[in-house]
């Protein structure tokens, strides 16, 4: 799977297909969450960072965004931001979050690699920077065991992915191509039928029999298993060291330039959250689930939460070389043409935070700002 980086970076930049923007059911770009069960309090006597009244943070209601869920639930964002208020918006789709970032509706967000790449390329490198990592893994191919008993049985079946051009859609199209199967990326028709289905309704689609399986992130994968599905493939098995970026942290380029102290504060909270998650997995799992309940009104049951959480690795490392490979997969699928990703990363502040913590710094795989 590795990509020749020097060849990759010499290529020009163009997008052949703008990935569709999904509109959230909630008003505006994201659903504002106003729960009061977290530990967030604006510290008395503290000062505003960079004079900012607030920093707007976006994330998904997925366990793969567990860093943000835990940091919010534990009050870590607010602790580091002092008297600058941490405001939030939750999203269902990466393109919607990119749109919110570009409009200024959010400043910093947790998001998958494919929308990050697409947003960067479409703006000619001007709209965003990836400033840190968050999670690896947590993506599986779940199938109906009565219809699919082996990998070769996937041919001719209907497999759901969350959205045209999203991270899991690109991964499944690439895997199908590696099997020698032909699929039209836009229509999803071919030797296997790709059915783009919102994660919220994928379990119902599975129960109704309208799909035969799904390539999806957690907790949707474990929800399907709870409905009788079988794990046919864990995407981690396809990657070197079983690691690949599933969630990273992005920031508006202008916000990073104008308010580096605020960005550093959010990164401090993220690093602290990941440290606590890895030291206290059970407590962290409960905290993430509590925030999911606050955001969506419903907690995950143990038979979904436990296996889902176990399959995700939380890391400050953005795993930059795997983002490079994921871009190559999008090119192969016909969703992206020859991007130049040089400059997509700026890990300066993250490495500053890591050094202060006595932790190892992380690498941008040659894709950092010059």
Automatic annotation (TrEMBL):
Name of this protein: Aliphatic sulfonate ABC transporter substrate-binding protein
Domain of life where this protein originates: Bacteria
Pfam families reported in the protein's UniProt record: NMT1_2
Signal peptide feature range: 1-25
Compartment annotation: Cell inner membrane; Periplasm
Major localisation: membrane
InterPro entries found in the cross-reference section: ABC_SsuA_sub-bd, NrtA/CpmA_ABC-bd_dom
Keywords: Cell inner membrane, Cell membrane, Membrane, Signal, Transport
Similarity field: Belongs to the bacterial solute-binding protein SsuA/TauA family.
């Amino acid at each position: 799977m590795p990509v020749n980086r020097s060849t990759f970076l010499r290529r020009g930049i163009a997008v052949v297909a703008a990935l569709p923007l999904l509109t959230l059911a909630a008003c505006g770009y994201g659903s504002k969450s106003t729960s009061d069960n977290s530990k967030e309090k604006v510290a008395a006597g503290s000062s505003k960072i960079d004079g900012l009244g607030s920093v707007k943070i976006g994330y998904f209601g997925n366990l793969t965004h567990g860093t943000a869920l835990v940091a919010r639930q534990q009050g870590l964002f607010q602790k580091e931001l002092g008297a600058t208020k941490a405001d939030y918006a939750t999203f269902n789709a990466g393109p919607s979050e990119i749109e919110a970032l570009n409009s200024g509706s959010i400043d910093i967000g947790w998001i998958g690699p494919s929308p990050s790449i697409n947003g960067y390329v479409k703006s000619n490198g001007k709209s965003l920077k990836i400033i840190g990592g968050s999670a690896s893994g947590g993506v599986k191919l779940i199938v109906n065991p009565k219809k699919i008993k082996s990998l070769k049985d996937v041919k001719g079946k209907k497999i759901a992915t969350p959205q045209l051009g999203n991270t899991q859609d690109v991964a499944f199209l690439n895997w199908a191509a590696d099997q020698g199967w032909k699929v039209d990326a836009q229509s999803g028709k071919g030797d296997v039928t790709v059915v783009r289905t919102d994660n919220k309704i994928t379990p119902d689609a599975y129960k109704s029999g309208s799909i035969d399986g799904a390539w999806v992130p957690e907790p949707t994968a474990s929800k399907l298993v709870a409905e009788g599905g079988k794990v046919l493939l864990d995407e981690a098995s396809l990657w070197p060291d079983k690691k690949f970026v599933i969630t990273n942290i992005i920031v508006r380029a202008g916000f990073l330039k104008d308010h580096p102290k605020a960005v550093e504060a959010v990164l401090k909270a993220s690093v602290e959250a990941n440290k606590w998650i890895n030291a206290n997995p059970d407590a962290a799992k409960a905290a993430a689930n509590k925030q999911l309940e606050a955001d969506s009104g419903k907690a995950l049951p143990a038979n979904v939460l436990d296996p889902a959480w176990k399959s995700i690795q939380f890391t400050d490392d953005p795993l930059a070389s795997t983002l490079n490979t994921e871009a190559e997969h999008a090119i192969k699928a016909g969703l992206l043409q020859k991007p130049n990703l040089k400059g997509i990363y700026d890990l300066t502040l993250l490495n500053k935070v890591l050094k202060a913590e006595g932790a190892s710094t992380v690498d941008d795989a040659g894709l950092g700002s010059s």
